[in-house]
C-alpha cells in the first residue's frame, strides 16, 4: 500500500441513490429486517451463500450487521443495504469485499430478497455501486466473482456490462461442499470506464 494512503482516514459517504434504490451502510438494528429477508429467501440463497446453510437467528444477523458497520468504518469491507426509495422495503445486500486500496481494486458481492427478484433491482444496484466505486473510491478494477453454476448472479454481471475475464477451475468450495469453478467478471479503468 502506498505510504500516503490510510484507508480509515478516507471520507467515504455512507449512502448513494439510484433511480429506484437507496443503498446505505448498515446500522445497528438492521438485523431484524435482514433476517426476515433471509428467511423468505433461504432456499434461493442456500446454494450460494455460506450464511444461508442454515437459518441464522435474528441475533446472528444483527451481529453480522454490527460487524459490517465496524468494517465499513475501518474501510476493510463496505457492506451496504439496498432498499426501495418508494416504500423503504428491504431489497437485498451489496458490498465491496477483498479490497486492495493500493491497486484500488474492489470485488462486488450481492444477494437479493426473493420477492424482489426479477425487477432489475440488483442490476441497478450493481450499476450504482460501480459508479460509486469509480467516482468516489477512484477504482481501477471492479470484479464480480460467482460460481459458474450460478446463472442468475452471472446474468447480473453481464447485464451491468462486466466482461468475463475467465473461469477459475475448482477454485471455491460452495455451501454444497463441492469445489466449483468460479467466473470472474471485471470492469477496468481505461477499458470499460
Automatic annotation (TrEMBL):
InterPro entries listed in its UniProt record: Acyl_CoA_acyltransferase, GNAT_dom, Ribosomal_N-acetyltransferase
Top-level taxon: Bacteria
Residue ranges occupied by any N-acetyltransferase domain in the UniProt entry: 21-191
Listed SUPFAM superfamilies: Acyl-CoA N-acyltransferases (Nat)
Name of the protein in its database record: RimJ/RimL family protein N-acetyltransferase
Organism in which the protein naturally occurs: Paenibacillus silagei
Amino acid at each position: 500500500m502506498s505510504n500516503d494512503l490510510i484507508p480509515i482516514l478516507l471520507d467515504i459517504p455512507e449512502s448513494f441513490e439510484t433511480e429506484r434504490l437507496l443503498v446505505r451502510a448498515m446500522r445497528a438494528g438492521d438485523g431484524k429486517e435482514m433476517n426476515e429477508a433471509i428467511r423468505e429467501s433461504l432456499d434461493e440463497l442456500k446454494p450460494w451463500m455460506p450464511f444461508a446453510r442454515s437459518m441464522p437467528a435474528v441475533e446472528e444477523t444483527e451481529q453480522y450487521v454490527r460487524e459490517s458497520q465496524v468494517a465499513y468504518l475501518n474501510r476493510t469491507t463496505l457492506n451496504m443495504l439496498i432498499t426501495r426509495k418508494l416504500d423503504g422495503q428491504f431489497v437485498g445486500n451489496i458490498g465491496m469485499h477483498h479490497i486492495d486500496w493500493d491497486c484500488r481494486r474492489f470485488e462486488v458481492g450481492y444477494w437479493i430478497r426473493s420477492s424482489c427478484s426479477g425487477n432489475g433491482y440488483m442490476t441497478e444496484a450493481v450499476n450504482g455501486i460501480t459508479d460509486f466505486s469509480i467516482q468516489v473510491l477512484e477504482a481501477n478494477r471492479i470484479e464480480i466473482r460467482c460460481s459458474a453454476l450460478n446463472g442468475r448472479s452471472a446474468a447480473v454481471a453481464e447485464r451491468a456490462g462486466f466482461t468475463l475475464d475467465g473461469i477459475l477451475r475448482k477454485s471455491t468450495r460452495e455451501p454444497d461442499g463441492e469445489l466449483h469453478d468460479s467466473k470472474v467478471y471485471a470492469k477496468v479503468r481505461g477499458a470499460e470506464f
